[in-house]
Amino acid sequence: MLADSLCVQSDTGVALDACAARGRLRSADALPGANNALRQVMYISKTRPDRFGGREARMNLTYCQRNLGIVAAAAMCTIFSLSAVRGYAQARPRPQLPIFSGKPAPKAPPPPKPSTKPLTQQQVSNAVLARAIDDIYLFRDRHFHAGEYSHLINLSYVINQAEPHMEGIYSDESYYLWSTDRNAAAIAALKRGLKANPNDYGMYDALGEHYLINNHNPRLALPYYQHAVKFKCPWATWHMLAHAYERLGNWKQAAVCYAHAAKTYPDDKVAPVLLRKAEAHINSGSAR
Predict the structure, then answer these.
(1) Contacts from 57-62 at CB under 8 Å and sequence distance 24+?
(2) What would the pLDDT profile of 207-244 be if each residue is shown by its tens digit?
(3) What is the enclosing helix (H) or strand (E) of 246?
């Protein structure tokens, strides 16, 4: 499959979509298409350089040529490797299979036949939607690297309308809303995620983290962490619940959380250390 599109405007206003062979060419089968696109770009660049875009377009053309050469070399190496493997397989001696007296060799099961049943309209719609969401996710990542957070937030909302169970997208949207001084909208995004995913620890954990870390409000974070640990969750969620208790001065409950994490999660090497710290506060008489 050819990657990014380079649109060239001709005299008649028709856009020529010439894709640079970059990264996604997986076999030599894609070479003819890449070669065709490259030839069209070269033709237009020579006949109408004013329409092609000058120095930047020539750089893109050089990029196409260089990558096409790399793909062609990789394809040739693959062909030679396959030929060598085939020659070795044909030349090596084959082991003699044991002969079982009176019993014919079992027949291999026939390969499954490809389904000839036509796709339903719903299946086609689902496939188109899934592909569109994949592409939107990629564009969302590009906006992130460009620092265009408003675009990232809007695309995150679109993705979650189609895929409401992608919990990480709600958290991303919330974080970038909060980091651009829209705290109320950030909380609303997390609560949308919680409404769509009420039977998993993830969104409770995310809301607790937002209140505890971003808003410095352990009192509001506490009920969400308390609810999160009712589900199967990582030991980090128990630690965050304990931190919320610590911020509220309740070291006894924090110690209970650390003790549970140390007992339940053998790979949690931090919980015993934090448990001793909580016990030290309790023994000092300064904790309640």
Answers:
(1) 57/6, 57/8, 60/6, 60/20
(2) 999 999 999 999 999 999 999 999 999 999 999 999 99
(3) helix 235-247
